Amino acid sequence: MSTTGMSNVKGKWALVLGASSGFGEAISLKLAETGMNIIGVHLDRKSTLPHVEEIVSKIRAAGSKAIFFNVNAAANDKRAEVIAEIEKHTEGGIHTLVHSLAFGALKPYIAEDKEKLSQDQMNMTLDVMAHSLVYWTQDLVQKNLFRKGGRIFAMTSSGSRHVWKTYGAVSAAKSALESHCRQLAVELAPMGITANAILAGVTDTPALRKIPGNERMVEIASARNPSGRLTTPEDVAKMLSLLVHDEAGWLTGNVLQVDGGEEIVG
Ligand SMILES: NC(=O)c1ccc[n+]([C@@H]2O[C@H](COP(=O)([O-])OP(=O)(O)OC[C@H]3O[C@@H](n4cnc5c(N)ncnc54)[C@H](O)[C@@H]3O)[C@@H](O)[C@H]2O)c1
Fold first, then answer.
1. Any domain includes 6
2. CB atoms within 10 A of CB 11
3. CA–CA separation, 115 vs 118, rounded Å?
4. Backbone torsions φ then ψ of 242, nearest 5 degrees
5. In a mutational test of the pocket of ligand 1, which residue from 78, 101, 135, 156 has the highest number of ligand atoms less than 8 Å from its CB?
6. How many domains in the chain?
7. Is 72 in the pocket of ligand 1 (CB under 6 A)?
8. Residues spanned by the domain of 161
9. CATH code of residue 171
10. Please, are residues 35 and 10 in contact by the beta-carbon 8 Å criterion?
11. Considering the domain boundaries, does residue 264 fall inside one?
12. CB of 41 closer than 6 angstroms to any ligand 1 atom
């Protein structure tokens, strides 16, 4: 037992896909605070790399280990490279996998040729934002690098059930991601690994600011959220830091709204 009265996660490893910003960053920092070591995967240009260094320093200052990879999480060869490193550095593999990748094409389905969503963009969005969860999980399990009693969390949004112009491909990815979580929950239940999708409310992050009409989205969410404010990455990180403990081991296959009540008043 830890000082919180809950099972101890100290020294266990979390693999966070999308660890350099928004939810993935906050989750990495919070899990490190609880004693977990972090493997972070992210895709950053030179200009944002200093921020990644800051995150790594904060994790180490909390007394945890941090190994970060600036690679495309949807590329098969990069996934293999990171998994080889996981094998080298973690004894017994990872306990928690967090999927928090934002890399979608934000275009309408119906528009003039250049403006409309293409087949490549649809495939890329679904591959990065949904299917990559399955491929990472398959490889980790196959290589015996996913510990019994482990956790999968995947970031979904209201877009899995509501429509926002230009958000069609991401909406489809969210529906697929939730479906993948249910499937993994069932297939991994014999290993005691749980899988849940986390439906965060509208949150001011770089990914949100890329959505056309995001100012209006923020306005609507701020007015509608019964808790009187937007969700923050830390709200979600705090929640996940509870769910990694053994005590949450029977919670699986859900879409968990972590949004101060925003979704239910829609
Ligand atoms: N911001 C919101 O309002 C909101 C609400 C609900 C759910 N979400 C979901 O949360 C997740 C994270 O979004 P965010 O708002 O924190 O975004 P963000 O832009 O702040 O962070 C995205 C992270 O993903 C990484 N990334 C993107 N593409 C990658 C790739 N191909 N390979 C490796 N790393 C890659 C980036 O480097 C970054 O670390 C997304 O799935 C998003 O849809 C966001």
1. no
2. 13
3. 9
4. -85, -40
5. 101
6. 1
7. yes
8. 13-259
9. 3.40.50.720
10. yes
11. no
12. yes
Distance CA 21, CA 152 (A): 19
Residue 202 CA: nearest ligand 1 atom is 3
Q: Say yes or no: CB of residue 266 within 6 Å of ligand 1.
A: no
The alpha carbon of 109 and the centre of ligand 1 are apart by a number of angstroms equal to 22
Segment 167-176, tens digit of pLDDT: 999 999 999 9
Structural domain includes residue 117: yes
CA-nearest residue for atom 19, ligand 1, is 207
- Does the CB atom of residue 138 touch ligand 1 within 6 A? no
Could you tell me the distance, in angstroms and rounded to a whole number, from the CA of residue 75 to the centre of ligand 1? 17
Note whether residue 85 is domain-resident. Answer: yes
Q: What is the 3-state secondary structure (H, E, C) of 20-83?
A: CCHHHHHHHHHHHHCCCEEEEEECCCHHHHHHHHHHHHHHHHCCCCEEEEECCCCCHHHHHHHH
pLDDT in tens, 7-33: 899 999 999 999 999 999 999 999 999
Q: Is 126 in the pocket of ligand 1 (CB under 6 A)?
A: no
pTM for this one? 0.98
